[in-house]
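#onboarding

Welcome to the new folks! Below is a worked example of what a typical request in this channel looks like: someone posts a single protein sequence, and someone else replies with the predicted structure as tokens. Don't worry about understanding the tokens yet, we'll cover that in week two.

Example request:
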Amino acid sequence: MQLTARVREILSWYPSDNPGTKANLARFLMTGRLAGTGRLVILPVDQGFEHGPDRSFGPNPPGYDPCYHPDLAVEAGCNGYAAPLGMLEAAADRYPGTLPLILKANNADGMGGPPDKWPAVTASCDDAVRLGCSGIGFTIYPGSDHRNEMYGEIREMAAEAKALGLAVVIWSYPRGNGLPKEAESAVDVTAYAAQVACLLGAHIVKVKPPTAHVHYDANRKIYEKHGVHLGTLADRIRHVTLGSFAGRRIVIFSGGEAKSREDVLEEIRQIRNGGGFGSIVGRNSFQRPREEGVALLRDIMDIYADNAG
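Example response:
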């Protein structure tokens, strides 16, 4: 399939990357129902590590089968599928050349430990190449006592990934002793987290949809002085995207906790209207019965495909 003008434009934002990395970025952008639009809908299934199998897959028991999720991604027409090492090893050859894969290379469990999590590195770039992945995924927690260690880990892994021609996707989730709970999704903190991921060399940045809360007084003064509009989610998406190299990095937004179908779709409309590049939707898709999950993902893609707003 010939690259569209929009995809060529996006690839031009990564002038330092080698042809292998650009080819893998193009695979994401030219796959599925949104191929060529510059928009992405990716299915992530790392929740079994983070929350355990029962909280993750109990609502829809077929999801206990690791083959269920790539099947769901392909049937719905997703741009890609992200999962930890074992999930991909169980189903990596199911759609070779058809479904771009992201190896989630660090993970943390939910069974206790220190107040500030520090995900373990659970896979390597060599694993990603062996499994035919197009990219690696890595979580950082800006605000954590351990953030500097995480930044160092992804710097090393990103350098190796890029040398191997892989794309780098960073999950940037502010949390830890440096931030109260309400600040984790504050608009200024989310924009800061996205900027940090860009500065660490991410090709694709994943953050949460930002709330209207502003955590830092210094930022509030700037917003008030310059008349920055943050009243709607679309406004806040636009602001986070602006903070991601003026929109010259692909920023996608998490689907978050399970919610009603209409709440999901309204959030997607706001992300689209704010210029977001897409979504990475896990629990809201695979915790529904198969037909409902497929239908919801396709409705999400239809919204992103409709740029009329």
